[in-house]
Amino acid sequence: MSPLLVLIGLISAPSAALPGSAGAIHVDPRPVAAGKFDPASRARHGELQPFTGFRARRPEKRYSVTVPIGKPKPAVALPRIEGPADARLPLVVIDAGHGGHDPGAVSPHDGSREKDITLALARAIRKDLLASGRVRVALTRADDRFLVLEERYGIARRLKADLFISVHADAAENQDASGASIYTLAEVASDREAARLAARENKANIINGVDLGAHSGDVSAILLDLTQRETMNLASDFARLLQREASDEVEFRTTAHRFASFIVLKAPDTPSVLFETGFVSNKDDVAFLVSPAGQKKIARGVREAVQVHFARQIAER
Ligand SMILES: [Zn+2]
């Protein structure tokens, strides 16, 4: 009778001493005579093989990690520039704070949402500025949509705006707190409250725990640039003007011009202010902010400040 091939396999478990090694099968075929098949099959023929040389060759880059991240998000569409079709006229970009799934502050009195107040104010300001015929105007958003902070000042930069005004309304636990204030950019906040407000406004970028705005660190570095210093001076000049021109009809806080590190103000080449128009947590303020009469008063103040601001710049040339 012809010899039989007996295959005895032994599957070894992965060895803890050799991390990364898989299980191995060692096969040891040998001929046995038919009469010896039974004893041969019962005998132990397998043996453990060491795992060295298991891989054909070592991977060349030992720590290379590839993570698919998808295509970069395209830049948001630029808004329409309204007003006279004369590119020499200054361009003012009005930014209605918050929007979409970010309501901003919500009034404990009437439930008014900051995002709706800021949009109504932005529209009122646009109307007044266009009526003046001296500037061109664009809104970062003209409806209820969400934009990250970098997209907001990004729009102003891409349009080469001469002035950027981000419109907001504050909220405080103390419902007596009232009045408008104007913030300009500084890496060090002028006071604790300004720092708190900047932290809260900057949070608009963090949605579901994911930080959607990426480059604030880069932009901070640009602060050292002279261009930025000039831009910041122009913004401060405008902030003072806005308080002066609007204070006939809009109640301002005692210290109306404050400084803090707001992401939305970080365009290095566009003078930018953040106009906190009042407190939605204050009964009188919120009634003023939601009323068409109050919105008109704020718009008029902005228009007058804008006119003086650009008249000064033309005079200085
Ligand atoms: Zn806000």
Automatic annotation (TrEMBL):
SUPFAM superfamilies: Zn-dependent exopeptidases
Catalyzed reactions per annotation: Hydrolyzes the link between N-acetylmuramoyl residues and L-amino acid residues in certain cell-wall glycopeptides
This enzyme's EC code(s): 3.5.1.28
Signal peptide annotation: 1-17
Segments forming domain MurNAc-LAA: 153-307
GO MF annotation list: N-acetylmuramoyl-L-alanine amidase activity
Top-rank EC class of the record's enzyme: hydrolase
A GO-annotated cellular component: outer membrane-bounded periplasmic space
GO biological process: peptidoglycan catabolic process
Keywords for the protein's UniProt record, in alphabetical order: Hydrolase, Signal
Superkingdom of this protein's organism: Bacteria
PANTHER family with a match to the protein in the record: N-ACETYLMURAMOYL-L-ALANINE AMIDASE, N-ACETYLMURAMOYL-L-ALANINE AMIDASE AMIC
Protein name per the record: N-acetylmuramoyl-L-alanine amidase
Taxon lineage: Bacteria, Pseudomonadati, Pseudomonadota, Alphaproteobacteria, Sphingomonadales
